[in-house]
Amino acid sequence: MAIDWYPLLFSPILKERIWGGTKLSSLLYKDIVSQTTGESWEISTVPGDISIVRNGQLAGKSLEELLYIDPKALLGNKVYQKFGTTFPLLFKFLDAKEDLSIQLHPNDELARIRHNSFGKTEMWYVMQADPDSRIIVGFDKEASPEEYLYHLEHKTLTKILKEIKVAPGDVFFLETGTIHAIGAGIVIAEIQQTSDITYRVYDWDRVDAEGKSRELHIDLALDAIDYTVSNAKCEYAKIVNTSNPIVDCPYFTTRFIPLDGELVFQKTTDSFTVLVCTEGTFSIRANGTMMTFQKGDAVLIPAIMTDFELNGTASLLEIFIS
């Protein structure tokens, strides 16, 4: 089957979470069906949560199907060489009405041995933040496993963790092993390796509607934690109509584009590109056709599409694999 490729939009995969709210609807136009919707998975090949195309002639086909039909055209030559037919990234929006659990993610080696999975290096872009909202990222000074366990046992873990107040536009890059939590009142765009492995170490002693607390992973986490101080916050330029570098790591590269008017886009066939719209509206013109997108859209541009134009007034995250 020959495919006439174009920018792909997928149906959101909505996740109820004990800490979720309704901002994915009010801010990002997602069709939520509960008052505790915590996550919208925009592009995913996590088993059981495979994204389905919702625009254009490929509507109804799964991302997995497209990867099987023509992986090089979709993923790019370099990405295909490294990952085969596996889509290596997962894109989400999160609405934290309440604090998320204090947690961390294992590195590639631990995740492969224990879970046959990738690790979970991730990046957060803060889209909205209530006054005085904050996140937890790493320790406030270098810690030891013994000190960490003491505070965990005595429910004083937050005393040795670093809290950071946040504002829209803030970016945090979280290496695997970094202990962290998104605080209440924050909406985040998250870019991460394709993995759903999380070690939860403290959940604020809360219980669900049935009086049950969520599972913790104290033992698994112990040798996965990075006990050093994390410098997770990323500073970056915001030059209009320019791809401003934010994060460049082995798993993904992220740039920020403040779009105002027209921007001609030229790239190689090495990697797919994803454009996440965090504010405004924009259009993509390619191969004689134009498609329009809005805040809350994560658009997958196949690697084979090397020349196109962006037009509009929007804030965009540009993600690809170097």
Automatic annotation (TrEMBL):
Limits of the Mannose-6-phosphate isomerase cupin domain: 247-319
Cofactors required: Zn(2+)
GO biological process terms on file: carbohydrate metabolic process
Cofactor note text: Binds 1 zinc ion per subunit.
Record-listed Zn(2+) binding positions: 105, 122, 180
SUPFAM superfamilies to which the protein is assigned, alphabetical: RmlC-like cupins
UniProt KW keywords: Isomerase, Metal-binding, Zinc
Pfam families: MPI_cupin_dom (PF21621), PMI_typeI_cat (PF20511)
Gene3D superfamilies per the UniProt record, alphabetical: Jelly Rolls (2.60.120.10)
Protein name (Swiss-Prot/TrEMBL): Phosphohexomutase
